[in-house]
Amino acid sequence: MKGFVLKEFLHIFRDRRTMLILFGMPIVQVLLFGFAITNEINNAQIAILDESKDEMTLAITDKILSSGYFHLASVLTDRNQIEPAFREGVIKEVVIFEPNFSQRFGKENQAHMQIITDASDPNTANLLYNYTNAIIRDYTSKSTQLATPPIQIGIETTMQYNPELKGVFMFVPGTITILLMLISAMMTSISIAREKELGTLEVLLVSPLKPWQIIIGKVIPYILLSFINAVIILVLAYSVFAMPVRGSLVLLLLESILFIVMALSLGIFISTVSKTQQQAMMLSMFVLMLPTILLSGFIFPIENMPLPLQIISNINPSRWFIIIIKNIMLKGLGFGYFWKETLILVAMALFFVAMSVKKFNIRLSK
Amino acid sequence: MQTPDLIKQNEPNHVIEVNNMVKKFGDFVANDKLSFFVRQGEIFGFLGANGAGKTTAMKILCGLSAPTSGEINVAGFDVYRQTDLIKKNIGYMSQKFSLYEDLTIRENFRFYGGIYGLKNAEIKERIAYLLNRLGLMHAADKVLKEIPLGWKQKLAFSVAIMHRPKIVFLDEPTGGVDPVTRRQFWELIYEAANDGLTVFVTTHYMDEAEYCERVSIMVDGRIEALDTPARLREKYQAASMNEVFLKLARIKKSES
Amino acid sequence: MNQVAVDMREIRKSYNGTRALNDISVHIHQGELFGFIGPDGAGKSTLFHILTTLLLPDAGTALVGGFDTVREYGKIRRIVGYMPGRFSLYQDLTVEENLKFFAGIFKTTIAENYHLIKDIYGQIEPFKNRRAGQLSGGMKQKLALSCALVHKPEILFLDEPTTGVDAVSRKEFWEMLQRLKAQGITIIVSTPYMDEAALCDRVALMQKGDFMAINTPEVIVANFGYRLFAVKSALMYPLPAALEAMPDTKAVYRFGDAVHYLNTHEDKSAEDIIRHLQVHGHNEVTVNQVNPTIEDCFMLLMKKEETADANT
User: Fold this and answer.
1) Which of A49, A264, B120, C11 has the fewest CB atoms found within 10 Å of its own CB?
2) pLDDT at position A185
């Protein structure tokens, strides 16, 4: 067993390409995704806190809601409700009107409202703010055409959770997810497929080694390397982009290990159904990488997807893992907020472990 | 040690002429001053142990790799400057036949005919001629993976000579097939040579060396022997080419 | 002695409806050097996969070292060594690392069984820090054999160990096998090279999933049943066609530097053949009666099977 793990490490360290993927990838990915990705929004869930409730605020609210971009999720009555509303994760923006909005408008030609957005997804937050702002400006310009002194509505924005609107924060969770998936699943599946191609797997099977020993021997080096990688990305994010981890670091690492185990068993499962390295690579690409990038909420918000894709995204483990690490890293939330997602990942891990042990034959699969 | 017959160069009927061919990889000399020729219509056996430098030499002759030095002419063309013309005038078949498993026999022929720029009518005519000769016309539309290994081998040969090359290079063409099929394959080679095609062949089956008109044996990058099988047997006082081969390779071994 | 190393009965295996093995049976004795001789597609690898517990047969039973290949595969895996046909070791590991690894998975060390592999490993030990990928074909083969031997197996399965290997390395390899056999290891080997049959104690001639004969090479040759003539003439190319034209010809085929000829009539003599060829314009004709080789037997048996197939 020790010999097996050692051999696996030798394979990894002697292959320049593998090393490049392992340790060049985090840097490239963090930088790449940190700067180059944009997305769209649609039908964002917002909440309104109207402390004035006069004709003017109602008219503005109406205009916002009829714009097609926003959907009213809840009506708040107290400022204390704002924080919990965001924590639930559904609401992306809260629009607040100050008391006596219309009166002040009439007297001082100036009234104040506030827009608070959930900036843990900074691109979305930015877009939402811009849309809202445009609607309000449109309203003011139309309703004040006749008035001589231009009246103003002061808008104060707050970017909740990510006050400086650092886009890169958003991409760190996604990058960690992609890299863990890539290293864990793709690398193990390729390395097992390579033994099949070489014919060495036949010899291993005809030895007294048990299948689970072969699997564990294959997997240990990759668990270690994936873990080291996750740490590298965090350190990189912290040092280059000054990104904090607001929640528990221990919890973050534990959840990462859970995800790694899940991805590894997925990788072994892939290797059992592919005969060559190339096949394993292609399968990993299509089954793992593309969904991880496209269907996880990493680049395209899931709520903007067509319904069928939203449903499919449910079986994508990355989707759940991204929610978990976003919650820990950016929102600083505790386990109570994502135990459901964790449970889903545990179930998926168990499923794939069972499947791969079952499929990883004691004989040749012919 | 060479008979006068072997050093005559620049004869009009020589389709391959090699003079002092050297190929080095760094310090390693893969081909050490090879000199030989091959006549038109000859079946020339190119033997040697694994790693003796056969594959390297063959690659140079096919225009796939440039020699370090030496004068080499293949099908009347220079290997340094006219590799494209060489490629047009030779055929090549390797151990792993380069036929497409998921295409039919006819589609494979068409594809290779197209590569060599044959016209449609000509392709049709060649397919009919070659398949008839193999007695496989009835199977023309079968997908390749459905047909036996022995057939594939003969087809691979036919594909290699489809564009009427002057020389065909066969790299261990008969690996793994049964003795009957192996002989059928050699009948095909004989027939083609009888029609004027030059056949340059490597093999690990020493009995096949006996089928060649002349045989060269490479040891450690050099041609140690080159002659007809009969004369080689006589010279090395051996009952078979296998013994000749073993003697030559063994002597070398005890020297080193 | 004469205990059974392999007892295989009525083994059948099909892939997608094509029969790879056709209800075949064989006994291999302990300490024997046994060869499965046949071309690609004869079913040799499938047979090896079944005996090494890598494949389940569709029907029939096989005991290896007294253990059932289906139920007691764990026990078999402890006592056999296996070198698959396309086995190419870990190219990125050194010679020594490869050997250490394979010793390790059998819970043994190189030192423990060094005496067993000394003869073979000794030859490549000077290169033990070289990566396996940089070894020559012959050396790779020696390393692969060392790896299959390092745990001191009782039965050694070698699937086409000499395919694609030159005649010198092949000869050396067989000499190594003879020395291993002397140490009491049962060696089961497959090969497409007919001439290697003579180096085995007993052989099974395989074709299309069937055994055409199982016996010692000597007995197989003795059972040939025809007088075999080696014919030469000044014109070798048209010689087979000329011989084919003789009445009651059984078989004509090129063999080395001659053409081999069989006639169904016992009393056809060399003189008859010479006379026939001279009539057909051949000069310098020589005809010698020669002993058949395994290859001659193989071809004759193939012909018999074909006619048997055609009759059913």
Assistant:
1) B120
2) 85
Same domain, C158 and C253: no
User: Which of C52, C85, C89 has the CB atom closest to A206's CB atom?
Assistant: C52
Whether A255 is in a domain gets the answer yes
Give the model's pLDDT for residue B40. 93
CATH of the domain at C127: 3.40.50.300
For residues C25-43, average pLDDT:
94
Task: Name the residue of chain B whose CA is nearest to C192's CA.
Answer: B176
Angle at A218 between CA A214 and CA A221, to 5 degrees: 145
Alpha-carbon distances of B5 from B11, B38, B61, B245, rounded to whole Å: 11, 12, 22, 22
Whether residue A62 is contained in a domain is answered as yes
Read off the pLDDT of each residue in A114-137 and give the average, rounded to a whole number. Answer: 76
C166/B249 touch (CB, cutoff 8 Å), yes or no = yes
CATH number, position A145? 3.40.1710.10
Instruction: Round the average pLDDT of chain C to a whole number and report it.
Output: 91
Give the chain C residue whose CA is nearest to the CA of B189. Answer: C237
Q: How many domains does chain C have?
A: 2
> Which of A173-177, B8-12, B213-217 is most confident?
B213-217
Nearest residue of C to residue A213, measured between CA atoms: C105
* The pLDDT of residue A162: 56
Name the residue among C56, C86, C97 with its Cβ closest to that of A10. Answer: C97
Structural contact between residues A287 and A317, judged by C-beta atoms closer than 8 angstroms: no
DSSP letter (8 states) at residue C55:
S
Asked if residue A76 has pLDDT above 80, the reply is yes
pLDDT band at A55 (very low <50, low <70, confident <90, very high): confident
Of A204, A208, A363, nearest to C55 by CB-CB distance is: A363
The conformation of residue C133, written as its DSSP 8-state character, comes to: G
* Number of domains composing chain B: 1
In this predicted structure, what is the pLDDT of residue C178?
A: 93
Chains that touch C (3 or more CB pairs under 8 A): A, B
Q: Which residue of A has its CA nearest to C94?
A: A10
- Domain of residue A285: give its range: 2-36+166-359
Q: How far is CA B124 from the centre of its chain?
A: 26
What is the band of C123 on the pLDDT scale with cuts at 50, 70, 90? confident
- Please determine, for residue B207, whether its predicted confidence score (pLDDT) is greater than 60: yes
C312 is a domain residue = no
Could you list the residue range(s) of the whole structural domain that residue C242 is in? Answer: 225-291
Greater confidence (A42 vs B192) lies with B192
Torsion of CA A291, A292, A294, A295, to 10 degrees: 70
In a shared domain, residues A141 and A247: no
The domain that contains C272 carries what CATH number? 3.30.70.2070
Structurally, how many domains does chain A consist of? Answer: 2
C88 interfaces chain A, CB cutoff of 8 Å: yes
Minimal-distance CA residue of chain C relative to A365: C55
Chain A to chain C, count of Cβ pairs less than 8 Å apart?
Answer: 83
| Segment holding B181, helix H or strand E | helix B179-194
* Pair (A156, A300) in one structural domain: no
Q: Tell me whether chains A and B touch (3+ CB pairs under 8 A).
A: no
Q: Do A198 and C74 touch (CB under 8 A)?
A: no
Pairwise CA distance, residues A338 & A342, whole Å:
6
Whether B180 sits inside 8 A of C207 (CB atoms) is: no
- Each residue's pLDDT tens digit, A283-332: 888 877 788 878 887 767 777 778 888 888 888 888 899 888 888 887 77
Band the pLDDT of A68: cuts 50, 70, 90: confident
Q: Which helix (H) or strand (E) holds B59?
A: helix B54-61
Supply the DSSP symbol for B17.
E
Identify which of C80, C85, C107 has the shortest CB distance to residue A206.
C80
> Does residue C296 belong to any structural domain of this protein?
no
Contact C29, C3 (CB under 8 A): yes
Residue A364 falls inside a structural domain: no
- CATH code where residue B121 lies: 3.40.50.300
Is the domain of C199 the same as that of C124? yes
From the list C137, C194, C254, which residue is nearest B50 (CB)? C137
Are A208 and C15 a contacting pair at CB < 8 A?
Answer: no
Q: Pick the residue of C168, C236, C244, C291 with the most B CBs within 10 A to test the interface with B by mutation.
A: C168
Determine whether the interchain pair B250/C168 forms a contact, defined as Cβ–Cβ distance below 8 Å. Answer: yes
> Is residue A365 included in any domain, yes or no?
no
C45 touches chain B (CB under 8 A): no
Adjacency order of strands within the sheet including C228-232: C249-255, C258-263, C228-232, C286-289
Q: Does residue A299 contact residue A174 with C-beta atoms inside 8 Å?
A: yes
pLDDT surpassing 70 at residue A366: no
